[in-house]
Amino acid sequence: MGTGMTRESLVDRHLGFVQALREAGLPVSLAEGLDAAGALTLIDLADRNTLREAYAATLVKRPSYRPGFDVLFDLWFPPVVSGSYGTGAGERPDGGVDLEHAEVPELRDRLADLLAGDPDDPAFREFARAMVERFGRVQASAGRQSWFSFAVLRALSPETLTARLLDRMLAERGGLPEKIARQQISRNITRFQDEVATDVRRRIAEESGVEKIARSTVKPPIDRIDFLRVTKAELAQLRREVYPLARRLATRLTMRNKLGRRGRLDFRRTVRASLSTGGVPLTTRLRPRRPHKPELVVLCDASDSVSTFSHFTLLLTFALREQFTKVRAFAFVDTVDEITTMFAPGADVIDAITRMSQDADITRFGRTDYGNVFERFAERYADAVGPKTSLLILGDARSNYQAPALDTLKRLAGRARHAYWLNPEPRAQWDTGDSVATGYGSVVPMYECRNVAQLAEFIETLD
Amino acid sequence: MWFASPDEVRERLTAVDYLADDGITTSVFLAGALGKPLLTEGPAGVGKTQLAKAVAAATGARLIRLQCYEGLDEARALYEWNYKKQLLRIQADDDAWDDIFSEEFLLERPLLKAIRSDEPTVLLIDETDKADVEVEGLLLEILSDYQITIPELGTIAAARRPYVVLTSNATRELSEALKRRCLYLHLGYPTPERERDIVLAQVPGLPASIAEQLARTVATLRALELKKSPSIAETIDWARTLLALGRTELDDAVIGRTLGVVLKHNSDQARAAKELGLAARS
């Protein structure tokens, strides 16, 4: 930030930033906004990193909000850039390369040097900025130009430097050293791409205003991403959320069972404790209640229409197996098969999912048929559902206009202690086309479960 | 005032061998300067508890620790009346009914102790997420007003505001009300560069080249999808193991044999061995 910033403009900027955070979906309360303002009076405003962390500490209370926060912070408090090509003309601080005029191969050499080094080096960022200045300007339409990252990345194509970097870093290829080197290189390439994207956004914001770009660039936090529209990279990120969720679900169920219920008098321990008060039993000791062991039966739609959702729920099922003593898992498309053994604790999750799609007998014609699935389930695995069981059905309730077999499901649900249905489709689409959501929902309570946040909410309301 | 600036935080924490980055120094400074509790959240073994200890050591303050667990209640977190002593007093003196609810019969528990302490105090509320939701309600009065209300005695305000650090492994979401009252610091896994420095600070005598290799290997392990990613604490254990074995180089064979120090699940070890191309363990 410039030193010439007056108090009024700082307050305006602060309010605008807080407003932008709220628009991006971060819940910033009035009190938290005041905390942040209070923090601003205590720190050195010229230090951009401290400013960023001060805002983060007071306003961002969930790690999943941090990426969106960083994007907005870079827009509202852009770094002071001295000149288009870093420092003044004539000096060559950048490894002797003239960034404004050098040929592309020479620039790639310089990039390779930087990728092999520490990305926190200021030269790394300077270089990214200079490259945006040089390659990032693209004619968007007649008479209009804008800034794009892809132009920069295409001109320099950092990924193609990997082989060269590996040769430079390693005496010989293969084994662990190569893995480690690759990890380091790909991390630095990602970092370079981020720096380029940040600078591109900064330039667009400079030219057409912060508010305009702020609205379009902030992605929703990972726990709000729709299961049915998840990309592959996001799915990997989602997988990391699974274990905490399973743990939470397990503690949720066991905690509830402990509440307000105490066991019988423990006579021996009561008498023992009374010795310190001269034989008068002042405190009674109770036996701990025998913990209730919840049993879980999961029925999971594994058809293609919900593949990302089922991938996620299978992972959840897998994680649950380690928390519950008795979990039985079943997958289905148009017939149903037990997959419990494939998900034995200690097995590798990703292997298990591949094995399931190969070995499990869940497909006859390949079109989802809930009716047939419930009939089959009742016929073959009726013993799985008993008075201690919680039944969890995961699927979109789209049955390709086949008979829904509501009575069978009703019987199954009636026998279980609890039954829940999680549907990954938005509520507005229920009952459209071949969806039998309301029909099934009248038998088994159905919850909209489109993202991790809703799944967590479901877990919290569980009883 | 606890610290004068974020830079001072960095210096003083480094002096007690805690290497802090910008995020840590800024929030530790602000927590002191704004007089707000600091909530640190993150995976196990990244130095959350250690941070509170380091703040206490760096400022010469007394550390009072409240370990949370399921079933923790008022009587063990705040205060309790000494029933036995009260009973004896009543038996000995029939007119004592009025003064059995006085200081003399009050048993201090960590929270009350921290509030009443008149020397500088760091209050560490460890693993807040393990406690029941009701305990969070109990904490709210203390965290926002630094006071405790005891029905028989009245409200006890802090003689001197303690520096409060809460830690959580995020096994459950803490309530919004609690989060609103705290500054938030998410501690994740460090960059390899920072982890190398941490290892060097914690394990004197380890060659810098091994520390570098270790940090990079652990970063690679964390990029795999493991059930439990290695923590900083485990990296340090690994460094100590190698030092004890007298290794001066980290090759595939050594890693294969000592992998159990950082990966505690059988499936994780198998996965790492497969992905990294290590020889199968004998």
From TrEMBL, chain B:
Gene3D superfamilies: P-loop containing nucleotide triphosphate hydrolases. Residues 34-193 form the AAA+ ATPase domain. It comes from the Bacteria. SMART domains: AAA. One of its GO terms (molecular function) is ATP binding. InterPro entries: AAA+_ATPase, ATPase_dyneun-rel_AAA, CbbQ/NirQ/NorQ/GpvN, ClpA/B, P-loop_NTPase. PANTHER family: MAGNESIUM-CHELATASE SUBUNIT CHLD, MOXR FAMILY PROTEIN. Belongs to the CbbQ/NirQ/NorQ/GpvN family. This is AAA+ ATPase domain-containing protein.
